[in-house]
Design brief:
With 218 residues, this protein is mainly α. It has helices at residues 10-21, 39-44, 63-73, 84-101, 105-110, 119-139, 154-170, 183-194, 196-217, and strands spanning 2-4, 52-55, 58-61. The chain has 2 domains: 2-73, Glutaredoxin, CATH 3.40.30.10; 84-217, Up-down Bundle (Glutathione S-transferase Yfyf (Class Pi), Chain A, domain 2). Strands 1-2-3 form a 3-stranded antiparallel beta sheet, covered by helices on one side. Strand 2 (52-55) and strand 3 form a beta hairpin. The mean pLDDT is 96. Bound molecules: glutathione.
Length: 218
């Protein structure tokens, strides 16, 4: 199994975290040809995005598909509950991240330079992000400690890297408490940082993200 991409991508990071939870070391490697737009990589994954997973003579794309492949191929320590409604809820939380939270980093990434910042775009981005987080909060388990309830799941795998990335970026825009007024997210965030697996993963991810952000700042 070969995972292409860089850990700093929250989409790549979720595949790494899912595998790690199951005791599998899946270290991402640079895409063949030197980048995700190289002819070699595009021949494997014409979508030209990371991650991609080479396995069993095929190349899979789309991070949640890869996470669910890891789940199916390595059923030990399941990442999906048995109950069909709870399974659907775990997928719903992951889907909210993909469709409504991840796209909200755009306005912040585009306006990192204070000298050229479009304040109106940033303010609209803050509002859209708060709405998406409130939607996520609504569907999260009230009991926790994980996003979908007592067991770690694909919901946590999708949420943690994306929210580490988002919180790391918005801090530069004065948002210091991303989960203010969202008690489920607040408790979940604390739990993730206290847990041995996700706490260590968060440290590793943040280090990769800081290195990436400093390289962008030049
Ligand atoms: N829906 C895709 C999103 C993957 C994605 O957008 N990855 C980014 C890196 S964080 C990427 O490769 N972007 C390059 C591009 O879109 O050209 C997934 O879940 O795998």
């Amino acid at each position: 199994m070969k995972l292409y991409g860089s850990l700093v991508s929250p989409y790549v990071a979720r595949a790494v975290l899912a595998a790690r939870y199951k005791g599998i070391d899946l270290t991402p490697e640079g895409p063949p040809g030197g980048g995700i737009k190289s002819a070699e990589y595009l021949a494997l994954n014409p979508m030209g995005k990371m991650p991609a997973l080479e396995v069993g003579g095929k190349c899979l794309a789309e991070s949640m598909v890869i996470v669910e492949y890891i789940e199916d191929a390595h059923p030990q320590k399941p990442l999906l509950p048995q109950d069909p409604v709870e399974r659907a809820n775990a997928r719903l939380l992951a889907r909210i991240v993909d469709l409504y939270i991840a796209p909200q980093s755009g306005p912040f990434f585009r306006n990192m330079n204070p000298a050229t910042r479009n304040e109106a775009e940033v303010e609209a981005g803050k509002k859209a992000l708060a709405k998406a987080l409130a939607d996520l909060e609504h569907f999260m388990s009230a009991q926790g400690p994980w996003a979908n309830g007592a067991a770690f799941s694909i919901a946590d795998v999708a949420m943690l890297p994306s929210l580490l990335m988002t919180s790391g970026i918005v801090i530069g825009f004065g948002v210091t408490n991303l989960f203010e007024g969202m008690p489920k997210l607040g408790a979940w965030w604390k739990h993730c940082h206290a847990d041995a697996l996700t706490g260590a993963f968060a440290k590793e991810y943040l280090a990769a993200m800081q290195a990436f952000l400093s390289s962008r700042r030049g």
